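Sorry, any thoughts here?
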Amino acid sequence: QVQLVESGGGLVQAGGSLRVSCAASGRTFSLYAMGWFRQAPGKEREFVAQITWSGSSTRHADFVKGRFTISRDNAKNTVYLQMNSLKPEDTAVYYCAGRNAGSGSYNYWGQGTQVTVSS
């Protein structure tokens, strides 16, 4: 099993920046990739960004390209999502997720961290 714990959410004004973190523990050697998802009230959960556990490859949703950046710190087993130029529509609960090698879907989920962007 892998445990994921998010931190760093909060309230920020539009145009501001915030960085959320996800610390992974447990059987992290089984991980192929880590991702960030978000869910706004009344909406379905949506993909935001993904990074391979090696850090060699990243992918970002079109609506965050140029504003959000996913990264990881190997020594700390931590994945980050740096969010710049935040908009009110970025308000959501942000979830960290982990995917095992050979898995077609994400296997592990954190509890989520609230990000609120005020206009």
